[in-house]
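Q: A reviewer asked whether we had any structural model of the full assembly, not just the individual parts. We don't, so I'm hoping you can provide one. Inputs are below.
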Amino acid sequence: MNIILIGPPGAGKGTQAKRLVTERGMVQLSTGDMLREARDSGTEMGQRVAEVMSRGALVTDEIVIGLIAEKLDSLGAAGAIFDGFPRTLAQADALEALLQGRGAPIDHVIEMRVDDEALVARISGRFSCGSCGEVYHDTTRPTRTEGICDVCGSTEFLRRADDNEDSLRARLMAYYKQTSPLLGYYHAKGQLSVVDGMGEMDAVAGDVAAVLDR
Ligand code: AMP
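A: Here is a predicted structure for the entire assembly that you could use as a starting point for your response.
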């Protein structure tokens, strides 16, 4: 099964994707993670995209489509969770062509709907484990023991450079201008389901599971 998670920054796409990886053995394909990896490892492409990402703008379609095509080649039979991709109609078309070649279409597109006001609070307190990637929040989901990851025990944590108010405003604008038209497109194709992303993490996970098991 292949699914797409769509929602503004801070909607909880990454958190829900990680649960599906654990609970259903699916593979998370996050273009944001792939781009951060390229940026941090200092590849030529990583250096080119670093400034675009820090502004909160979208990286070119060509680059992200190339990254996804490469990952799909090595995916095997596991189902994919597309997290943060596609973000433009051109990326949606490219994904469809890539999946057609593999004979494995998209089964569900899930929109995670959240209030814009909640996003600033969610994003500004967000941090993650530098080792296993578990996502935490200063007030709503701190680690059980301060400074130690609940999942893997690491003491290294990361805060994203683009998780600040200016970048968030640009990322939200990019979402409404370039990505939200995809919702109409997938609705017209009969693939779109909407999940309330404002609830507790477990409740949201339950709603996502209900869509997948339909
Ligand atoms: P994310 O981790 O999904 O919030 O992505 C972080 C940043 O990476 C975004 O603000 C964009 O600059 C870039 N990015 C991630 N995915 C894409 C995509 N599918 N298309 C264009 N840019 C992307």
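A: Points you may want to mention in the reply: Strands lie at 3-6, 27-30, 80-83, 108-113, 126-129, 135-137, 157-158, 192-196. Residues 11 and 114 are 6 Å apart (CA to CA).
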